[in-house]
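Example record used in the benchmark description.
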Amino acid sequence: MTSGWTESQPDQTVHLYTARPTFSCFTGMKEDINSSNISKTWRLGCLIYGLISSLFGFSLKIISELTQSHIQTLKSLSHFYGVYMYTTSVALISVLFIFAWKQSKSTNFKAYDPHNGNLFLKAGMVIFGCGTCCYCIVRGGQEFNMIIKEDDCGDVGKFIMRVTLCIQTIMSISFVVTQSKRVFTMFIRQAELALAHLVSADLITCVEFVLDESEEKAVSLRISDNLTTGCSTLDVEEDENIEILTTLFYPCIIEKSLIAAGFFCIMAINVSQAKVIENRSSKEIVVGKEHLLEWNHHFYMKFSKTGAILGTLVLFFTVGVIFCRKLTMPDDIYITISYRIFQCSLHLINMLVFLFTNPKLSIRQKTSHFHNAIDVPLLMISLGGLLQCMMFASVASWVAFLTINKASAKIEAAITIIDHSLHGIQAVIQTLLIFNWLRLKAKFDTSYTRSAIFLLFGINLSLWLMLMFEMDTIIVSKFEVALYSKLNWNLIVHILGPLAIFFHFHSTACLFDVWFGSYFPSEENSNVEIIDKQSLFTITKKD
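Model output (structure tokens):
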């Protein structure tokens, strides 16, 4: 039986890597004594470049929004900067593909990080990337229609920016899916700079489209309230369809940008610092360790079958509930109350399953690092957005409960308060336990834990779908609109809503990491000692 982990053997290694390999690392040439300092200085420079690029993009966009009625040049400059970032990103991704190809051809050894290739996150990158492209096509088509009809509201810069974002998204998807595990050990300075630029471009995308879509939706709300005339030359029905589609696809931009920025950031950190080195010819792990990807199908299904069935049932039932609400009368108070009760039950079940599963997992040994380095920052960012969104919504519901006299409205407000409170409490507990579980050492386990994790997988995916398809309803939620006004609540939702939605998707990705990375495929592997190698040192073949 093969071991669940493969590790380096001292008598089988060769003089291959140093802690900071240079261009000569594959040829055995002596390394420059100052290369480590040069690399640190260059990395710091790349970090500064990324920060300056991001801050300049943020500032330019915010200033252009605040002064758009006075200084049109700033708005055009903001769009030009976005086009520059996206077109440069496309060029740099193409260059990184060339670097990866040259590196593969130059050596018989493969350097990579096995923890930067979460299958679920890659699937999310593809799904949200497709949603981003759909958004760009819909909004770009609307913009193009206004341009060709010489409408004053048509903006060529905004149209070009959305086209270039669509191209950059396609390139990012292809790069992340095929190269996310790769560690660049050649062209390290160029790779660090390129990856810093890609992180900056995706962070700018978040701010750019939060403000852009907030502005678009604000104009739409003013038109619906007859406070202003519309810019579009489309029919009213076509405008309504566009608003429905963009409301659905808009969160995909934020979620895709966060995932891509996370992948690129980890790749930038990993440049020249491989966790695993593999001989391409013999498939032997020379340095480091890796969990075998040869899944024992019988094992995985044997101890996950109950959770898989229950999670799938919850997911399909949730989809049915969402469609029933959309196809019936979404504004009906009794349908809304029933929907809230269903959400409360999901939050409660989710929290209880986490709490009942944790004692069984908390007694296991833990590693010093997380299974996937990208998980922690993304989960913390999305948790912050969710908690702030729940706080705003809870305050609005509490004010409505105190001020409204109608009995049915009071019941709805009370259930909404309970729903938001449960959601926030459950999210905090879930995050803390996931952080704990992401450090579990792999072990053979016949208990219910693997099945429970699969059930949590299904519940979080269900909660993500509910929030994803409720974006249009949330924007016009009557309690929040009554307290904050339509325009203010619209801005809050467009800033915090995508983060709240992303929280449950990324929680599902983290649970996938736990489900896959914390178990050995057979009992014979349970006694394997795991050696954690955080860094690489010079390894010389023994005579």
